[in-house]
Specification:
11 strands; 21 helices; globular; 465 residues; 9% strand; single chain; four-stranded mixed β-sheet; alpha+beta
């Protein structure tokens, strides 16, 4: 009862806004239990009696995106999390949520200055020779300002919104409470694992709300591409970085989506596309650590053709087991060896051990053949993975958020390639690198070396060395 009273104000606010957008009463593309729909309709009649019986004109996905915008910053981030979960909200709704732009009006510059001065115990004038009070970007949890250090170096300064921790803690506690109630009261919602969804969101947001974690992510990517001139990661100024402020090198470049500007700089879009494909494969499959928020503002092209990444708040991580499994699965798909696809899924326990492998292989064939019959430029590995995850979900695969994040990022990377040149297929351009990687990691010899490594590690654990 105490929890209910504590969460009541937020519950009333959410019910009012959700009812306004008719989220539960006209859920075109999402399976809402009838009992939930009835209660939602009742709430809609109470909170919005005038238009409660009119059918909305916008499709469900757009209404849901607008609903999250109205609910506030944390819900915008939650909506972006759901955009990576087509298993929960359907592919069409997930696509609509992908367009949920993380933009909000900026907060006052005096609050920005107060935060910086409090974090570093120095006046702004002692840190920067110039600080632009007008932000270059303002998002749900932070905003970015351009500044100059005392030595004249141009930097980007990202500052968290005031009171974001307080608001976040209240909102995530409410989401957890709501997930628990729905899971307990409505049996049909149990399969959605709403409590786990909120837990994953909570873990992701804990990192995003600690800018030292973002700095650490940038630092790790810097180490990964230290000897690669085709990739640029901004330098971190650690002495001007804290949980609430991060200071990075200012990167000058044009948006990856501005093909005209890229050509104007004398660069070849086809080469840029190939570099992006290789960069992504290096991050995801070589390192198991990839930038997972590649929207237009976060990927730039420098004058020398280097690909620059900024904003490292959302990072995907893949264990070696998953990296190798997905690579083997894709390799088997491209060879149209569907029995092999099934065997790999079974071996790494992506599907229950009592799964009928022949039936699973047949299901894989049904989703892959329509794609494999396309021209090479039209083949989308990201869409293939999306269809595969839908099949594995039907066969009882446990949801793995990192794999879904990988698939979503793949689709974005493919979209970048298409924006650079509509005849480009990024995987075809990256084929030489992919083949080289496969030869190194997927051969029997490579597997034997990994087995020896695992045995050696187990032996060391047992001996206590």
């Amino acid at each position: 009862m105490l929890k209910f009273c504590k969460n009541l104000p937020r519950l009333l606010k959410v019910v009012s806004i959700v009812s306004k957008y008719k989220i539960f009463t006209y859920p075109d593309q999402i399976n809402i239990p009838k009992s939930v729909r009835f209660l939602a309709k009742l709430a809609e009649i109470i909170t919005h009696p005038i238009n409660s019986f009119t059918k909305p004109e916008e499709i469900f996905g757009k209404r849901l995106a607008n609903c999250f915008r109205n609910l506030g910053p944390i819900y915008i981030k939650f909506g972006q999390t759901l955009s990576t979960r087509p298993d929960l909200v359907s592919a069409n709704v997930a696509n609509s949520l992908t367009e949920l732009q993380d933009k909000l009006p900026p907060f006052a510059s005096n609050l920005v200055r107060e935060t910086i001065e409090a974090e570093f115990n120095q006046k702004i004038s002692e840190i920067f020779v110039d600080f632009n009070d007008i932000p270059v970007a303002a998002a749900s949890i932070a905003q970015v300002h351009k500044a100059k250090l005392i030595d004249g170096t141009e930097v980007a300064v990202k500052v968290l919104r005031p009171n974001i921790f307080v608001e976040y803690n209240k909102d995530v506690e409410f989401l957890g409470y709501l997930a628990t109630i729905l899971s307990k009261w409505f049996i049909q919602t149990k399969r959605l694992k709403l409590i786990d969804v909120v837990k994953v969101f909570h873990n992701t947001m804990k990192s995003e709300l600690n800018l030292r974690m973002e700095a650490a992510a940038a630092s790790r990517l810097t180490d990964s591409f230290n000897n690669d001139p085709s990739v640029k990661i901004p330098k971190i100024y650690w002495h001007l970085t804290s949980e609430q402020v991060i200071t990075l090198e200012w990167i000058q470049g044009v948006s990856i989506y501005d093909t005209k500007a890229i050509i104007k700089q004398g660069l070849n879009p086809r080469e840029i596309a190939a570099n992006i494909a290789v960069m992504f494969f290096n991050q995801a499959y070589r390192d198991g650590f990839f930038h997972a928020d590649l929207h237009p503002g976060n990927i730039l092209v420098c004058k020398d053709g280097a690909i620059a990444l900024v904003d490292f708040g959302i990072i995907g991580m893949l264990k070696e087991k998953d990296r190798l499994a997905i690579a083997e699965i894709l390799h088997a798909f491209l060879q149209r060896d569907y029995s092999r696809v099934a065997i790999i899924h079974h071996r790494v326990k992506y599907i229950p051990q009592d799964t009928d492998l022949e039936l699973f292989a047949q299901s894989c064939r049904s989703i892959a053949e329509p794609i494999m019959g396309l021209k090479i430029k039209d083949i989308s590995i990201g869409n293939l993975l999306a269809r595969l995850f839908k099949i594995t979900d039907e066969f009882g695969m446990e949801t793995q958020p990192q794999l879904l994040l990988l698939q979503k990022t793949m689709v974005v990377v493919e979209g970048i390639g298409q924006s650079l040149h509509d005849e480009i297929n990024m995987w075809e351009l990256a084929a030489p690198w992919i083949q080289k990687w496969a030869n190194k990691n997927l051969t029997p010899e490579a597997k034997f070396v990994r087995i020896l490594k695992i045995l050696a590690e187990n032996l060391l654990d047992k001996t206590g060395a």
